[in-house]
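S1.2 Input.
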Amino acid sequence: MLEMILELLVVLLALYVGSRYGSLALGAISGIGLAILVFGFQLKPGNPPTDVIYIIIAAVTCAGMLQAAGGMDWMIQLAEKLLRKHPDSITFLAPLCTFFLTVMVGTGHVVYTLMPIICDIALKKGIRPERPCGVASIASQVGITCSPIAAAVASFVVISSANGYEVSNLEVIAVTIPACLCGLMAAAAASYRRGLDLDKDPVFQARCKDPELYNYMYGNTATLLDKEVSKEARMSVYIFLAALACIVMFSICQIIGHDIRPAFATGKLDADGNPITKPLAMNLIIQIVMIAAAAFMIILAKAQPKKAVMGAVWQSGMVAVVAIYGIAWLADTYFSNYMDEMKAGLGDIVTAYPWAIALAFFAVSVLINSQGAVVVAMLPLAYTLGIPGPVLLGVLPSVYGYFFIPNYPSDIATVNFDRSGTTVIGKYLLNHSFMMPGLISVIVSTIVGYTITMIFF
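S1.3 Output.
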């Protein structure tokens, strides 16, 4: 037992130190923990999550080409037009825009261009920017569990299939999208009158009395509306949407019992001596479609591969690959060696309260800045403990907890983008602008998702 506790401390310490350094360090420092477990404690290595990594690479390559071709700028332009047309509703519309951008592209890092625009519209309208900015930053990450090409969703499907729970990407997002939208709208409603109005905020009014600060806040306008959208940019969006539609079509046909996936012989025979065939897995279909779409963007939309590699989407995606690689391998090594002990210790709890696994998902996510990594690291353990697949699907929104400690790039960037100074980290670290909307969103989303699966699954 002492050795088991010491090894757990190694895992937690590796995750903590990695999160302090951030970026690539989270995966790399997990490698140190893995080395200690394998070479120091002689634990048998687990399995690296290669299937998930391949999906991320394919999706990020496609999204990176979309950004390189200018397609993301066009999508953000459309979102800006909506926000500027209805500025009074920005606290509700801003999170919807960042949410659906993430849903479409599969990564929350696409919103950095939109966030300054949200801040600018709110400030010029006299709305406290913290209200839409806080919940919009949360929404940009919530959308990850609602995207059919995101690592978290793809990982859930692959791991669930391996554990006997057959579910498609479309069935996953059919639960997570309505659940997360309910959570986000609850967070937006709670944020609608949050904090003092700007004309009553003494801190903001003091900033306005400083001519230099006043000019900094009101002197410039953040916008993409003056940027010309090329036909190649539009073409890249059409190609991307066609790729998403293709993936959804395969899932729909599978659900309605008219599976159009190609099937291949497994090398085994049934009782009558006929060869057994198995349809192509959805994770492979996603990879093929995404890579092909990226190629079409290069050929038809003139997307430059060098520009894609330099873009924020591709770079952040590759960071996620390294993080998931190290974290998931470390976690799988520890859990796979102590599965019997965990079953004995946690079996009664998860049998009586299977939804309690959501608390574990959330707690691990606080340490790991990746929802995909949480799914890959924790979902196999959850299945081994005997938790039903529909329960795990229902509580999937709980894998987002890294807003709790405000060190994630989207949250830090949002604080910097808010020229009014109302979106803050807080003196005591945890009293930051993202805590309230984050907790409301995750709690409501998890409850709604769990309810949906209990009713329909």
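S1.4 Remarks. DSSP finds 21 helices and two strands in the chain.
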